[in-house]
Amino acid sequence: MTGKLKLSQLWALTLLRVLIGWHFLYEGIYKLIKEGWSAAGFLSQSKWILEGFFRSLAENAAILKIVNLLNIWGLILIGISLILGLLERAAAIAGILLVGLYYLSTPPMPGLHYSIPMEGNYLIVNKNLIEMAALLVLFLIPTGKFAGIDRFIAIFRGKNEI
Amino acid sequence: MDKEIKKEERRKRGFTRRDFLQGLATFPVLGAFAWAAGSANRKRRKTTGTSASSTSEEDNKNELNVALVGAGAQGSVLLNSCLLIPGLRFKAVCDIWTGYNLKRAAGMLKKYNQDVNSYEDFGEMLEKEKDLDVVIVATPDFCHARHTIASLEAGINVYCEKEMSNNLEEARKMVLASQRTGKLLQIGHQRRSNPVYRHIYEKLIKETGIIGRITAINGQWNRSFQPDLGWPAKYEIPADKLKKYGFDSMHQFRNWRWFKGLGGGPIVDLGSHQIDIYSWFTGVNPSSVLASGGIDFYDRSTRDWYDTIMSVFEYNADSGILRAFYQTINTNNSQGYFENFMGEYGTITISESANRVGIYREPSSPAWDEWVNKGYVTSPLIPQVTEASEAVLDVRESVPQEKYGIPVNFTDPYHKPHLENFFNAVRGREKLNCPGETGFETAVAVLKVNDAVEKGITLKFNPEEFKV
């Protein structure tokens, strides 16, 4: 690192972390409590180079069940991790992978159209990609040791460098 | 070197108050999240009307004994819905197609641990099953009166499929029997219990009158061509048995809906559901009907009833006169099925297929913000205005209407809420949404359409008139 971050910069990054965590957590909780929620609809919309792979996940009931469980609990655990600043770097990487899958399933490539309602207009870059980039920032400049449970972990291991 | 010293210092300093506060700084966010998510969930449940589980436990202890009469296509639909409702114990199934329908229904119930007695003869069933609380009648229309009246007189509550009868004299006797015996009779116009329809009726039609005075209704059911129903040769019912139960042939038994004296054709099978909504929403029965129809597309030698009907009703509602169009065709399913109510301030498009529901606001209507805030309708989607659409906007065209939604999410099988309403009424918890009296009024309105087609009172054109 070239220099120490200012306090205001650290708090701003903490805010970003908490907001992304909130988003993940609610996406997971919503799917958990909504009766009959399934990723099948989303997966069967898949287009582009991994279309075959994502659609095949939706077609097999046993696999779909596992996909749904992993998705729901992945979202919830990543969300809690980011909000609390607990194992933040691992959560950031897991989040990038998970959102990366969403992105690859329905990427806004030129000429592709989806029937999923979207509230904006996107070309190659969409909110999934931006959230992935934000998670990359959190991975590289973690704030859990500044404001988060990771601070306690660092102290116990005798390190408190941010 | 420097770093090593710092580490040492840190260790010596130990755990400070600041470490504690900062380490837990974001913890309250979880509390805020729990509050927000809990509140969102309560609001969602309120609009979807998820019922409390305590009543279902109570119902399981106090089961209703049920028999299904008529286990064909519609009987299976009702059976599937019943299997999702707690507190029911199926005791008997009755169907004259013993080798097929009866076997299938009994087998299905067995899978759900409901051991039932199977009967071919309805009278025998009533005689032997002494502890029935409820009979579900899903036989052909011409059998409804016989099965319903006998059940009511045996002291059993009846859920009878619509049309309550193909014969108004018999329909009247059904209502009288329920009044005489004091037993409940629900007619299967299941939209009357559909949460989407109930929300629209109670909040948008009755309470707020959101679309103002209704002047026109347009309802349609467009269905694809369907070949005659067949049957596996080994399950053919012998001719004398068919005769005994009122059918001339196996073809007639399978396709009874298309035959005079047995059913009422598409206007009754399909139109009845929707014309029922016309009376419900307008609050009055029609004052006249004119209709044109015929067996235009199907093979006339294989059926009696009209495959195509277009009809116009007139209603004298309290708010004024209004006209209602109804069409059913059985050749092409474009536009599917819907009912469209058009008023001075907007349009309500409603359908049993939920993705078609929309509330459209006339640009001149008073604002609907209050109804959005009250949660009666949901805000319109931002319209996608493109330059191209502006280019074709011409002075004669009106400003497009904004489409509002309704905050009701209904994903259960269509018939489940109506059956639940019936069972809850039997348990004394609710009033019937479609008692025999209401079903009778709808039967009168609907059967008159076939009469109107048959009598064909129209002004004919003479080809000479078109010559100059």
Count of beta strands of chain B: 14
Number of structural domains of chain B: 3
Determine the oligomeric state from the structure: heterodimer
Query: Please, what is the average pLDDT of chain B?
Result: 91
Level of helix content of chain B? Answer: 40-55%
- Structural class estimated from helices and strands of chain B: alpha/beta
The CATH architecture of the largest domain in chain B can be named as 2-Layer Sandwich
Biggest sheet statistics of chain A:
none
From the alpha carbons, calculate the radius of gyration of chain A and give it in angstroms.
18 Å
Any idea what the radius of gyration of chain B is? 29 Å
Question: What pair of chains forms the biggest interface?
Answer: A-B, 25 and 18 residues
Key attributes of the depicted protein:
heterodimer; A: 162 residues; mainly alpha; 64% helix; globular; B: alpha/beta; Rossmann fold; Dihydrodipicolinate Reductase, domain 2; 3 domains; 8-stranded mixed sheet; 6-stranded parallel sheet; 14 strands
